[in-house]
Design a protein that fits this description.
Arc Repressor Mutant, subunit A; rod-shaped; 3 strands; mainly alpha; about 10% strand; homodimer
Chain lengths: ~120, ~120
């Protein structure tokens, strides 16, 4: 099933689903770097790194600028707000769901105790 | 470049990079559902939905159980802790980096003002 209309979250989660790309972002926190530097640091071909940078650029995580023959990468403006919000919502609902389950289990236990007491009477 | 050794974060971010799969998780917050129900709800073939459920199951977001001819899906044990931690770290470092940039810009402005005052003397 092909999704032709990819949302922002689709693009950004896909960009984050690769250890090298997450590593590149961590590297760019420390400072701007050329694609050549990044390729060397991650033991990768220039073509491979260009592809990763393209994915990060498309997701808004990285911006690049070419000066002469060197393309420099820097951290983009995307602050992962939407991504953090989705994950936060997921975790809250997850907790609520399993807390609710705990509560149901607790209620069943209490009922059992109650039934037991009634039987003993 | 193929990564043979995919980390947990790779698998989970990839699982989240599809609007249908995120929708299925939101649906399962509300209660367990069969693959047939989910396929209908998301206007998808049974084969398409099975594939999505497989991805979610591999990432630990969903567990399934077959009873007779019906396979029921429920929310798995994965609480997105690692994912939330990574995104949180990213956001903090992003803020620190751009705050530091603001600080540098402010320092430059102050120096310019200082130079201007000195020139006027």
């Amino acid at each position: 099933m092909v999704q032709y209309n990819r949302s922002d979250l689709d693009v950004s989660f896909a960009a984050l689903s690769d250890a090298t790309r997450r590593g590149v972002l961590e590297q760019l926190w420390r400072g701007d770097a050329s694609i050549t530097d990044l390729a060397e640091k991650f033991h990768m071909t220039l073509t491979g790194m260009k592809k990763h940078i393209g994915v990060l650029e498309q997701a808004g995580f990285v911006t690049t600028k070419k000066l002469g023959r060197v393309r420099t990468c820097k951290l983009g403006q995307r602050r992962l707000e939407e991504e953090a919000a989705w994950i936060d919502k997921y975790r809250k609902l997850w907790d609520a769901r399993f807390d609710a389950l705990d509560q149901v289990v607790e209620e069943i236990k209490q009922e059992e105790k109650h039934d037991e007491r009634n039987r003993k009477k």
